[in-house]
Amino acid sequence: MGNLTLMADYNRWMNAQLYALAAPLGEVALREDRGAFFGSLFGTFSHILVADIIWLKRFARHPGCGAGLASLDTVAWPEALDAQPFADFAALRERRDELDALIAGWVPGLTPADLDQALAYTNMKGEPGHRRFGSLLLHFFNHQTHHRGQITTLLSQAGVAVGVTDLLVRIPDQD
Known about the structure:
Structural class: mainly alpha
Distance between the termini: 14 Å
Order of helices and strands: HHHHHEEH
């Protein structure tokens, strides 16, 4: 398993764990402002999803990488990083599951040549960027991990036992 495939697997697994732990809290508790960067658990889950959509839509424009992301053509660009495009947690979770399946299916098909090319994009402030695609994928996964760490803290503060979140548990043992 390559490192990016491992990260795609970890992303899918960790999101499934956190959404399952958060769902029983209910909509009111999920939307309670807890003083996090994006306010609530719902706001933080939404931010991760919105940022993922933005990056995946950028990645779809990269030569040789877009075919696996073609299903995002019908998904609207989020208007802001704090957007909450879904009315309830169940709908947010459904889109998360869809994106995680898409990511897990797309990443293993990337080639070293794809990763070494630069991706030209424009950030949410309209500023141009031109960076190595493989490094942007590392940022993509690191960003998710950063905000999931905030979610685990918020869940812990709400009395939810989160359990093990380490990447280590997704790394296969070697014989």
